[in-house]
Records
---
Amino acid sequence: MADEMVRRAQSFVNLIYGSRIGMTVEEDGRTGWSTMYALTRALQLELGITSLSNSFGPTTLSTLTAKYPVLNSGNMPSENFCKIIQSALYCKGYDGGSLDGSYNPGVQAGMTKLKTDMGVVGLSAGSDLTPKVFKALLNMDAYVSVNSGSEATRSVQQWLNGRYLNRQDFFVIPCDGHNSRDVAKAMLLAIQYELGMADGVANGVFGPGTQSGIRSHPVSTGSQGTWASLFSAAMILNDQPIAFSSTFDSTTAGLVRNFQSFVGLPATGNGDFSTWASLLISYGDQSRKGAACDCVTRITPARAAALKAEGITYVGRYLTNPVVVVKPEDLPEKAIQEGELQTIANAGLRCFPIYQTYGRDASNFTYIAGRTAGQAAVNAAMDHGFQQGTRIYFAVDFDAMDSDITSNVLPHFKGIQDAIADDGNRYRIGVYGPRNVCTRVARAGHSTASFVSDMSYGFSGNYGYPLPADWAYDQIVTRTVGTADGAINIDNNIASGRDTGQGSFDPGRPARADVRLDPSVVPAMQTDVGKYMESLGYPIDGGTRSYQHWKCFQSTVIDHDDLITELSVKYKLRKALVQTSAYWEMRHIEPVDEAAWLATISLFNTVGKFKDTSTGIAKQRGLTLTGAWNYCLAQGLITGRGIADRTNDEHLYNAWKSSYDSETSALTSVFLIHMWDIAGKPDGDDKSPAMRPPRLDYVDSEIYDVLRRYQGPGAEAFEEAKKRMGLYYIMEKYNAISRNR
C-alpha cells in the first residue's frame, strides 16, 4: 500500500539530490531498496564523501562517526541532513514529523520507538541517533515481527543488539522474528565476545579458536548466566520450543534431548560441544562419523570393505554423468559403473541414487528442465536396476536465494513430480540441496525426504536456517577412508533412518541396439508424449497448427517403425533421437508453412528457381538435405545418386521435393542430418565441433547437442533443445522397455 509520507520522502530526495547523486527514485509511496540507496547517497554527499555508493560501508560509517558520533536536536548539521533522517524514519514505518528539517518531538519519539524495537535504547539517550543505528535506519530490515515472526526469536535479536552493539564488528540485526544469515553471524560474534576475543579478532566464523572455546563452556542442568542465555538463544534460532532464559533447568534438558535426537546426536540433555556445534553451524561437529556417505568414485570390493570398517551402511551414488568423460577431472567414475551395485549389495551396503545435471545457477532450473530430469532419472534408475519405491535425490547444487527457489526451483520440482507421476510413481522424489531449498520443496509437496548439503555452510540457504524436518542424510564433511586399494574419498553423511536406500537390485539394462516398439507400449507412449507436449502448451487437437498429436505420432513413430529401427541399428543412433526430431518438427507445421511449400513448387515449375524453406514432416531445407547427403555419401554411409551441387537450383529442389513427397525420405534424412551434425556439419552453417561418433550410450550433453544441431545454430535452437530433451526421454523410455523385454 502506498504511503503519502514515503512519497514525500521520495519527492524530497529527487528534488534536492537527484541531479547530484546519480539517481532518482519512483515517487510511488512504497519503500524499497532504491529509495534507501538514494537516501544513503544523499547522506554521503552531506558528509563530504565524493565517491558515492549504494552501500553504507566502512567509509560512510567512519566519516559519520568522526563528524557526528551522536546526533540530536542540539547538533543537527542542516535542515536537509535532518530531512534525510526524517525520510528514513518514514520509510521504516516510524514517525518522522512533518519533513520540516527539524529534529522535533515527533522525530524524537519516532527515533526512541525505533531504538526500543531494536533493543538498543539503553545504549544511548532515548532519541539520540548514533552511527550504527543510522546505518540500520538506511536498510530494509524490520524491527517488528513480520510474516508471522516468532516473538521468542525477536527477543533474542533484541538481546543481541542491546548487549553487543558497541563492539566494533557488531551491527544492528533485524528484530523481525526470523533467523537469517546476519542473525546467525551475530550469534557467533556473541559467542566470540563472551570467549574474550578482542575487536578485530572476533569475526563471526566458526573457526578453531571458537570451537576450542565452546568445548570449555558446556552447559547443563543448573547452569546460569550468559552462557545459558546464549545456549537458549541458539536453541530458539533453531526453531526449538524453548523460552529465552539465563537458567538451564530440567525443562531445558528435556528439550535439548529432543533436539539431539532430531539431529542424530546422543540424547544426553547436556549442552556439550557437539550440540553447540549443531546449533551454531550447518555442518555441526565434523568429527562425527556418519552411517552414510556419497562419492564420485566406483565402489570396489576393497573400498566397500573400507566403508564397512568406517561404520558406513548407506552409499549415495550418481545415476548419470551428464558430460563426456575425456580427462580425469571429468570424474570418470561419477556415474554408477557396471556391476557396482552388486558389489555394494554383496558387501552388505545399501545404495541411495542421486540425479544431478550440470545446473549450477537458477537459470538451469525450470518446469521443463524438471520434467526432463524426472524422466531421465527414471530411465537411468531402471537401467541400473533400482527397484520400485526407491527414492531418487534430485540435486540443487548452488547457492539458491529464496527468490530463486520461488521462481525456479519450485517449478523445477513440480516438473519432476509431474514426470514421476506420469510414469506411474515408480520412484519417490528426494531433494538434495541447502536447508532452505529442502524445506521449501518439501512444504510445496514436491519431495518426500531431504539430503541436506550442510557442508556448504556459506550457502545462503544454510546460514540461519534449521535442519529440515524430513532430513534423511546430512552431509557434513569430506574425508578419505581406507588405505591402499581400499582408499576412497567420500562426503561423510549423518543418517536419520528416514531413508535406507536399496540393498538388492533388479538386473541392469545394458546398452543394447534398438528393436521394434513392443505393440503393448505404444498406447502409453502416445499418451505420455501427448501429455508432455500439452505441458508445453501444445494442445492434443493441434490448436492453430496443421496436425493433431495422434497424426504426428502416427507418422513419425508408428507408421515407419521398421524403417527407423533398421536405420537406428545401421547408424548406431538411438531411435528416440530421430523420433523426437521428426515428431517435434511435425507438431510445429502451420498453414503458413504449407502455403510456402506450394509457393516453392509453383516457383520452380514456373521459372525453374528454387526458394528454400523447411518442408515435409521433418521440416528440412534443401541446403540441409544436400549437405547431409553429400557428407554421408562421402563417408560411405549411403549409396545412390552422386554428389549434389548445392549451388544448383534443380539439385536443391529435387532433394527438397523428395522430403516433401515422402515420409520415408524425410525420416531417412533425419538420420543423415543427425550424422552430419554429429560430424560438426562440415560445409554447413553450424560451427560446432565434431562430437564423438554415434553410439548408444550418449550422455545428456551429447543428446542435447544432437537435438539442438538439428534445428540449427540460432539462439532459439539452444532453448528449444531443452524442451526436446524432455520429449526424447519419454521416447527413449518406451524404446528401452521394448528392447529389454
Note: The chain has four domains: 4-140, 161-280, 292-495, 519-739.
---
Amino acid sequence: MVYITTQILICLTLLFFIITMMVNFSWASFIIEWEIMNMSSTSITIPILLDPAGTIFMTTVLLIASSVMQFAKTYMAHDKTTDRFIILVILFVLSMMFLILFPHTMILLLGWDGLGITSFVLVIYYNNAKSLGAGMITALTNRIGDVMLLITIALMFNEGHWLIINPWNSDLVPWSGALILLAAMTKSAQMPFSSWLPAAMAAPTPVSALVHSSTLVTAGVFLIYRFFPLMKTWTLFQPFLLIIATLTMLMASASAMAECDMKKIIALSTLSQVAIMMFTLSLNLPDIAFFHLITHALFKALLFICAGNMIDIHHHSQDLRLMGNVASQLPTMTTAISIANLALCGAPFMAGFYSKDLIIESTTMLMSEKNLMIMFMFIMATIMTTAYSTRFSLYVLLGPTFSPSAQYSSENKTQMMSVIVLTLMAISGGAITNWMFCTPLTEPNFSSIAKLLAPMMILSGIIMGIFSTQYIYPLNSLVVQSHCFMWFLTPISTHLAPQLSMKLPLLQLKESDQGWSLIPSLLFHQLSISSSTLINSQNNSIMTHIACISMIIMWIIAAV
C-alpha cells in the first residue's frame, strides 16, 4: 500500500505542477463552480479556486508528501500498523487540500478541523503516556482556534456571504479579523500558544516532516494570507501581530540554543521561521511572507527527513550529544544536512536566500525609522538562527561520536531518493519560485548598509554557534532554565493552566450535580473542623485524664 500511495502522490504532484504552470503563465485566477445538487430553484454549489498562490502551495504540499511517503517505506517498515499510518497521512493531505483550494468557509472549516483531528491521531500514534500528553495539549490548543473560526463563520453568515474572497465592509468585519488572527495564532503556535509545537514531536518522524514544513503549522499563515484584505480593516492587526511575532521569534531561537533533542531543535526552528512569516505579514508584505512559506517548506522537510535518517541509524536516539562523526561515514546525508542548514540560514543562492534576504532588507528599511527595539530583537533572532544551525552541524557532522561501539552506519537507497529530490529543491526551489512564478517580484533598491547586514548576521551567528559548542551552560541558571522551558510556557500550559481551568468546572459540578451550594459547603467545612477538634481532644492518654481530675479535685478543695 505504501508503494501505491507514493505513486499516486507523485502523479498528483506532476498534475498540479502542470496546473500551476498554466495558471501562472496565464496571469489569471479561475473559480470552478462544482454543482452538487439541484432541486427546483435551489442549487448547492462548491467553488474551487485555482489561483497562483493556491496552486503553488498545493504543488509544494504534494511534493513533500510524496517524498515523505518514499522515506516512510523504510522508516516505518517494521511498524505493524502501516496501513493506518498511510490512511492518516492521506487524510492529512486531503484536509490541507480543502483548506487551500476551496474558498467556501464551510469547506475551509472542514479542512481546518480535519488538520486538527488527524494531527491529534498522528501525535498519539505510538500509544504511550508521553504521546497522549502531547496529543492532548495539541488538540486542546487547536480547539481554541477552531472555536474562533466557527464564530467568524457565524459573523460572516450574519452578513450574508460565505466566500473568503469577497467580504464587504460592515461593523462586524474588524471583529472577524481579530478572531481569524487568534485562530491563526493557535494553529501556527505563536505566543502564548507555542508549547504544543515541540510536544508534537512525539509523532513519527515522517509525520513531523510533513506537519512542520508545509501543512499544519503553516495553515495559520496561509489563513491570514487569504484573509489579508479583511485583516487590514482591524486597526490593531499590524502592531499586535508585530509584537507577538517578534517575541515568538526570539523565544524560539533562544530555546533552540539550549535544546539537545534533535527533533525539538528543528521544531523550534520551524516556530522561529513561522514567526518570521507572521512578522512579514505585520509589515504589510504578504507576498514576501508567502514566498518564504514556500521556500521554508522545501528545506525544512529535507532537514526533518535527514534527522529521521540520523535517528534511525542511532537506534532511535534523538540526543544531539550522542551523535557525531557523520561526515566521514554518510557523505550524501552530510551534504543534505549542510545544504538544508545553509538554506535555513539564508546563505546566498540557496532556497531560503531569495525570501529571507528580502525580509531582512525590508525590515531594516521599515523598522530603522519606526521602532529600534523591534529591529534589534529581529536581528538577534536571525543571528541565533544561524547560531543553532551551526551548533546542530558541529555536533552531528563534525564532532566526535559518542554512540555505542557497535554502531553501523549506511545510506539506504530508498531513503536517499527522497533526500536527493528535496536537496535539489532546497538549492533551486527559491530561484524557480522567484524567476518563474512570482514575477514580477521586483527587487527593492536598498542602501549598501542594508545589503551588507544579511552576510554580517550570518557571520555573527556562525561565531556564536561555534562558541556555544565550547561553552558549558550552567544548568541551574534561571536564564538557561527559562530557555529550556520556552520562557516557562511549557509548565504554564501543561500544569498551571489545566489546574486553574478545572477549578470553575469542579465548583460547578459540586453546585449543580452534587447539590453542594455555597452555604451548605461552608457549614459542612465548619462542622468538620469542630468535629476534628473534639475528636483530637478525646484521643488523649490516661495520664491526661488523671491530671485533669487531680486539678478539678484541687480546685474543689481550695474552694471549700
Note: The chain has 22 helices and two strands.
